[in-house]
């Protein structure tokens, strides 16, 4: 591992029209703010689409809705739950994707113990303790330590509150029921970069290396100063890496 209906938000760009667009898929309880730095920078050279996952309770349904609205040919970048949706899109329509970036995600199905823990979080959110449920869903220890952690926590909580209790339940169900995509990764012939944070306790670096090893054209990159939300924790570095990957 190297170190170092659904709405689409479009960013205007000044680049060549022949450059393929990139579609970003936000993570669990996240919106376009998750990719704000990357979208604003990359929009100077290519069309950028941020496709919210919506209040659906199935990775397959999310993937279907994204494909319905996506450009005919595009690069794909998904984080966390969005990465799981990206893998399902790659399974269904690999011919529409030029290359892929998966961030802080997992190709495995949910473990029974984690599925049971999500049920408790859903119950807590429905009982009026939404902020407590979110604090357990994204514990501070899953983010890189340091002065920037509190800022990232504030942004993540603000995004999560926008989805509310119903959104929390639906997306938690999607995580619980997600399909195993190891076979997908073995089959698809797509240049794919896995980006993970060293401090991610939800989907640790070894899982990303496993996914990269499964793929014929996979590569893993670990960021030492990031955790589960590297696009917010190390926005400039993630933007640089994505830009290099798209133009390589």
Write a short abstract of this structure.
By secondary structure, the protein is α/β, with parallel strands linked by helices. The protein has helices spanning 36-42, 59-69, 81-92, 112-126, 130-137, 149-176, 182-187, 205-214, 230-233, 235-247; strands at residues 9-11, 22-25, 48-50, 74-79, 97-103, 192-197, 218-223. The protein has one domain (9-110, 172-247): Rossmann fold, CATH 3.40.50.1820.
Characteristic terms for this protein:
Rossmann fold, disordered N terminus, alpha/beta, 7 strands
Descriptive account of the structure:
With 248 residues, the protein is an alpha/beta fold. It has a single domain (9-110, 172-247), classed as Alpha/Beta hydrolase fold, catalytic domain (Rossmann fold). The chain is built from ten helices and seven strands. It has a seven-stranded mixed sheet, sandwiched between helices. Helix 2 crosses helix 3 (81-92), helix 4 (112-126) runs antiparallel to helix 5 (130-137) and helix 4 (112-126) crosses helix 6. The longest helix is centred in the middle third of the chain and has 28 residues, at 149-176.
């Amino acid at each position: 591992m190297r170190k170092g209906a659904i709405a689409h938000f479009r960013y205007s760009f000044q680049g060549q029209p022949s450059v393929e667009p990139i579609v970003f898929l936000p993570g669990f309880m996240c919106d376009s703010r998750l990719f704000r730095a990357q979208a604003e920078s990359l929009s100077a050279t290519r069309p950028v689409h941020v496709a919210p996952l919506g209040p659906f309770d199935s990775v397959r349904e999310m993937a279907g809705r994204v494909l319905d609205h996506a450009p005919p040919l595009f690069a794909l970048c998904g984080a966390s739950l969005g990465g799981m949706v990206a893998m399902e899109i790659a399974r269904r329509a690999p011919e529409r994707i030029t290359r892929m970036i998966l961030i802080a995600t997992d190709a495995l199905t949910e473990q029974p113990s984690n599925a049971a823990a999500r049920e408790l979080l859903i119950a807590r959110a429905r009982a009026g303790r939404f902020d407590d449920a979110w604090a357990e869903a994204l514990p501070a220890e899953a983010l890189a330590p340091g002065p920037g952690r509190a800022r990232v926590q504030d942004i993540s909580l603000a995004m999560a509150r926008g989805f509310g209790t119903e959104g929390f339940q639906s997306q938690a169900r999607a995580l619980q029921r997600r399909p195993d995509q190891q076979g997908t990764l073995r089959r698809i012939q797509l240049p794919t970069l896995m980006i993970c944070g060293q401090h991610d306790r939800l989907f640790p670096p070894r899982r990303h290396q496993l996914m990269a090893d499964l793929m014929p054209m996979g590569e893993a990159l670990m960021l030492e100063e990031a955790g589960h939300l590297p696009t917010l924790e190390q926005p400039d570095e993630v933007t640089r890496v994505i830009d290099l990957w798209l133009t390589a």
